């Protein structure tokens, strides 16, 4: 098969359309009115699929910091951190991340994807073993692949299953890296972290937790699930992103191990790309400060998440296993899911459509991400949009 | 093929029968993706079931070498040999 034929076959298999019509996989936001409302396909739309958990993308402090940084340092760094792309602001953000987490080491990456890619591929090598939760994000899988290490899954959130797989490794378990997430992006559930850490301790392995969806969302001061679960001292590496609760773009890793700093010189995704722009770093620093100084945002986020989750559940929708800012709604087969997404959009609401094989168990998902910035009136519109389908749900799906 | 490898192949086929799209009898020449329509999620589930059945670590790294049912059985046989050493 020729190279382009393969792409055409991929397009047919996944029913990718090249038409100009609106598609859930190609929706274009033409204008933004706030952190939670914009224009898509010429229509004013409430955004419930943006991961903008604290609604900081339009925060004045963040915008002003970003604006000032662009004036002072220009639009881009035009180089790698190991060449001309290290500015004092990059170092300051790393210092502030370390202080926020109470950890001595921090590295900033250009995206969250690259943080996982860069850290995992530098920590482990061929001959080592990674044991990861089966629901881990694609960036984690890609980092594992790039490392060349042996990759083993354990069943989602099952500490006993993790233990079984570590036991099979024998002495190699001490050299294994266990990877989990704070909040899993597909179903919105937390890792069973206390139980998983107990197994990790028993086998003396290392653990990395990706707090991409839990930074600013969980924990007394917003440090994530490890803080909420009271196990921070046992976590070896924490990765995360600036593109969700911090409303920018970029990624990071923090660690209690001084060796983290060496990764700067070994990590290809860190070395061979341009560093984050001054504007990005400035808005991220402002947002990180807000996470610490405005805990009311976190409280509002959970109040909104509870409202939407309970509202959808009372309609009979089959949801992820716990209340969370990521609310996954199980829907039917692909065509039904596409039609439902379109009808919800026609009612002025944008949610994410997630199709297999990106979903955990071959089901289609409509995924909402709640923001602290959503008003009660907006959430009511979202609930009304879903209520349209209430009497059309299969009986077995009704609670 | 030795008797042991015949037994192993038969066990792999038994496990794969739960993944057969239309309950078609599975043979060693069946292609996992093309014939059994295993997508990446199903392959991950299969790997965990095989690990538990054989009480063996089966890293995902073997997958690039696996096209058919026989390939899968061979890779498991190799891993069992390595584990026994």
How is the secondary structure organized here?
The complex is a heterodimer of chains A (399) and B (85).
Chain A: H1 3-13, E1 29-34, E2 37-40, E3 43-47, H2 60-73, H3 88-101, E4 105-109, H4 112-123, E5 129-133, H5 138-147, E6 150-154, H6 159-169, E7 176-181, H7 193-203, E8 206-210, H8 225-229, E9 237-241, E10 251-255, H9 268-271, H10 278-293, H11 295-314, E11 326-331, H12 334-346, E12 349-350, E13 352-354, E14 364-369, H13 376-387
Parallel strand pairs in A: 3-12, 5-6, 5-7, 7-8, 8-9
Antiparallel strand pairs in A: 1-2, 2-3, 4-10, 9-10, 11-14, 13-14
Helix pairs in contact in A: 2-10, 3-10, 4-5, 6-7, 11-13
Chain B: H1 3-16, H2 40-54, H3 69-84
How would you describe what is shown here?
The complex is a heterodimer of chains A (about 400) and B (about 80). Chain A has 13 helices and 14 strands. The longest helix of chain A is centred in the C-terminal third of the chain and has 20 residues, at about 295-315. In chain A, helix 3 packs parallel to helix 10 (about 280-295) and helix 11 (about 295-315) runs parallel beside helix 13 (about 375-385). The mean pLDDT of chain A is about 95. In chain A, strand 1 (about 30-35) and strand 2 form a beta hairpin. The termini of chain A are far apart. Chain A has 2 domains: about 5-60 and about 295-395, Aspartate Aminotransferase, domain 1, CATH 3.90.1150.10; about 60-295, Aspartate Aminotransferase, domain 2 (3-Layer(aba) Sandwich), CATH 3.40.640.10. Chain A is α/β, with parallel strands linked by helices and about 400 residues long. In chain A, the strands form 3 sheets. Chain A has a 7-stranded mixed sheet, sandwiched between helices. In chain A, strands 1-2-3-12 form a 4-stranded mixed sheet. In chain A, strands 11-14-13 form a 3-stranded antiparallel sheet. Chain A is globular. Chain B has one domain: Orthogonal Bundle (Non-ribosomal Peptide Synthetase Peptidyl Carrier Protein, Chain A). The longest helix of chain B is centred in the last third of the chain and has 16 residues, at about 70-85. Chain B contains 3 helices and no strands. Chain B starts with a helix and ends with a helix. In chain B, helix 1 packs across helix 3. Chain B is globular. Chain B has about 80 residues and is an all-alpha fold. Chain B has helices spanning about 5-15, 40-55, 70-85. Chains A and B meet through strand 6 and helix 6 of A and helix 2 of B.
